[in-house]
Design a protein that fits this description.
- The protein is of the alpha+beta class.
- The protein has a single domain, classed as NADH Oxidase (3-Layer(aba) Sandwich).
- It is 38% helix and 17% strand.
- It is built from 7 helices and 4 strands, in the order H-H-E-H-H-E-H-E-H-E-H.
- The protein has a 4-stranded antiparallel β-sheet, with helices on both faces.
- The protein starts with a helix and ends in a 5-residue tail after the last helix.
- The mean pLDDT is 96.
- The structure holds flavin mononucleotide.
- Flavin mononucleotide binds next to strand 3.
Length: 168
């Protein structure tokens, strides 16, 4: 577990190698095992792998789109507002399920990147995917693919001394 956390990095260059269906299923299964406020499980997913036109369509909505075009798969993560109950707690729930997917992908040797930039284009994404505009909130898109390079560079972190406010 710790090894997976330590080795996960955002991967933004992918090989042209399809991700096996069973591995995608494992990634999605890990999402739904995340904790959720009141166990309401408001997460919903649209998985885009076969239809590269949709992947390109989403990439075209973004500024930093080149890496998205090389992704084998995108998982669009939605909050079903009909299943949620509290904005902050629902948002935290969604973060938990997203992180589970990133860590599971890492443990399977699959590179991933959490994409938030696309949230500015909520309506366009929902239109492309034919997802109900009012009911679902786009929370993130996760790009997935086998990493082009092994051992991505680890981005530095603030030291614990800076982020731990205190030990009491
Ligand atoms: C909420 C959120 C939104 C993010 N949005 C983007 C994004 O739009 N594009 C991108 O390339 N990376 C995005 N990232 C990835 C961060 O840039 C990355 O996690 C951070 O730089 C630390 O690097 P690491 O993931 O390699 O440890 C996002 C991460 C989070 C948590």
């Amino acid at each position: 577990m710790l090894h997976t956390i330590e080795t996960r990095t955002s991967v933004r260059l992918y090989k042209k190698q399809p991700i096996e269906q069973e591995k995608l299923d494992t990634i999605l299964q890990s999402a739904i095992l995340a904790p959720s406020a009141k166990n309401f499980q408001p997460w919903r997913f649209v998985v885009i792998q076969k239809n590269k036109e949709i992947i390109y369509g989403i990439a075209d909505l973004m500024q930093r789109s080149t890496f998205v075009k090389t992704a084998d798969c995108l998982i669009c993560v939605f909050l079903d507002k009909d299943s949620g109950f509290d904005q902050v707690k629902d948002c935290q729930t969604m973060g938990a399920c997203i992180e589970n997917m990133l860590l599971t992908a890492t443990s399977l040797g699959i590179g991933s990147c959490w994409i938030g930039e696309i949230l500015d284009k909520q309506a366009e994404v929902k239109e492309l995917l034919q997802v109900d505009q009012a009911r679902y909130d786009l929370q993130a898109i996760i790009s997935l693919g086998y990493p082009l390079r092994e051992n991505g560079t680890k981005v530095s972190r603030k030291p614990l001394s800076e982020v731990v406010l205190g030990y009491k």
